[in-house]
Amino acid sequence: MLVHLINIGDMNHPMHLHGFHFQVLAQDGSPLPAPQTMDTIDTAPGTTYDLSFTADQAGKWLFHCHILPHVTSGTDMSGMITLFDVTKP
């Protein structure tokens, strides 16, 4: 999987992936000298990142901001959250 993150807002978002570690390939359009492995990356306003990971574990995996008010609205999940539904590794 290739994920391109763009923070067009005015707040930091520490984005976390459940179930996998990802490789940070590029920041702000420039490839990194060596990919960095992590499961959370803090995206500052105006930054972009290219991430990749191998979806080799079946399940439903969340990718979300670790600042709780950024992913909830009252009683439901919304906002800075998405789901990777891996059916066949």
Protein traits:
Immunoglobulin-like; 10 strands; 4-stranded antiparallel β-sheet; 89 residues; mainly beta; 0% helix
Describe this protein's structure:
The termini are close together. The protein is flat, with a radius of gyration of 13 Å. The protein has strands spanning 2-6, 13-17, 22-27, 30-38, 40-43, 48-52, 59-65, 72-73, 76-77, 81-86. It is mainly beta. The protein has a single domain (2-86), classed as Cupredoxins -  blue copper proteins (Immunoglobulin-like), CATH 2.60.40. 0% of the residues lie in helices and 57% in strands. The relative contact order is 0.30.
Question: How do the helices and strands line up, and which of them pair or pack?
Answer:
Layout: E1 2-6, E2 13-17, E3 22-27, E4 30-38, E5 40-43, E6 48-52, E7 59-65, E8 72-73, E9 76-77, E10 81-86
Antiparallel strand pairs: 1-6, 2-5, 2-7, 3-4, 3-6, 7-10, 8-9
Which second-level CATH architecture applies?
Answer: Sandwich
Number of DSSP-assigned strands: 10
> Which overall shape is indicated by the principal axes computed on the Cα atoms?
flat
Mean pLDDT: 93
Spatial order of strands in the largest sheet? 1-6-3-4
Provide a brief overview of the structure.
By secondary structure, the protein is mainly β. 0% of the residues lie in helices and 57% in strands.
